[in-house]
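Much of our argument rests on the idea that a fold can be written as discrete symbols. The record that follows shows the chain in one-letter code together with its fold in token form.
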Amino acid sequence: MSNPYEQPLDNLSAFTHPDFGQQFRYMDDREGVALAQRTLDEFAASGYESIVAIESGTSPLMQIMGKLRAFGESGLSLTQLKVPRDPDFNLLSWFEAYLPADELDEAVSLGGENISRRQALAAECGRFTLGSMASQGEFSVYDSIDDQQTYDDTVPGRIRDVLHGTSLADTLNQPFLLFDEYINSGTVLRNFNALVRLFAARPEFKVSAYCAFVDDAARRDKISFSLYDKQTELDCYQNGAYPYENRIDLIGYYYFATANSFKKVTLASLYDELSAAPHGDPGAFYGQAMQAIQASGATEALQDALTEEQVRRYVTAHDVARFLLKHLEYATHGETKYADLLDQAFEMYAPAWSPMPVRNHLDYWNGFAAISGQITQLAETLQPGYEAHRSDILYDLVRRLVAKKSEWDTRINRLIKEANL
């Protein structure tokens, strides 16, 4: 098969964990439903009525939870927020993504002048980035959880005044429980600690997770619960690893985040957009690309550049093809939502972040960086063909992702119905 998006998706079972000496598998759908039920039970027992979940890896789990009858009966409210790892994202676009239009257009007072909240946020965000507020020095996951940092409140205080009265500010000024699937390095949590202070001067929340990589999570005051921690890490993986990281086909959307933009892009919207135009079969271009990759020796060069033996055995010409396709989009059309889509698809097949060591994924990235010259040469050769088949390639990919999402939804709905949940 020459279509790089037709390949079976399994980025875990080929690897053996170096510390545990074992191979692992992902949870299946039935176990995913059981995890949603277990997490909901923990939410209900926490004493919090408001849950704030960090997107996007938690999203499929929250989607399952939202289908459970017990969730509707629980009285819990759920808010989902994307917090980028890079703190210097476009903050104004982030506000525009999460605040409804009527709140953005509402008049507020800034410097004695009545202007729209959107205008006021634009003025304040023009001289502020979250990175200037979040700690940039060395920190640990424990630092992010305990959140004892001292924050400069000058600009955040003004932004907080502008955001006062919005529905999101109301949510974040009440006690809430923060949830993320994995809390490992603490980077996203560190950024959230800064972001929440743009809404609440003294936020009142605890942290929860599927797995927090800390010693004895139950003994830490700031952690409400973690289903697993460093002491039970092996159990976490043996019971089936968390299956929704980097799964755009199950999440159903992604965030197109650049220095100038932060926008939620759904697969459904891409499908509607791409299906409106004529499109054909990209198979001929895929065949041409695979022939060019094989003739160039790029796969062998990639394998030679990799330092991790397991990653070296894992990669094939299809990995090169997926990297090449996103490179072609960047080279021909720049930083677009479609380049981000192709990057999301590339990452979906990359070696699993968890439960395997991070070094596998980083080695994969570094390997491609090492053969960038060959990728550029291949792109120059294939660029005319890519331009001619671009809409076919994008439509074919989105069609496949939408179909997988629909099939997953159907399976989950059936399992929930069968279990009378």
Remarks:
- The chain has a mean pLDDT of 94.
- The longest strand covers residues 176-183.
- The first helix runs from residue 29 to 45.
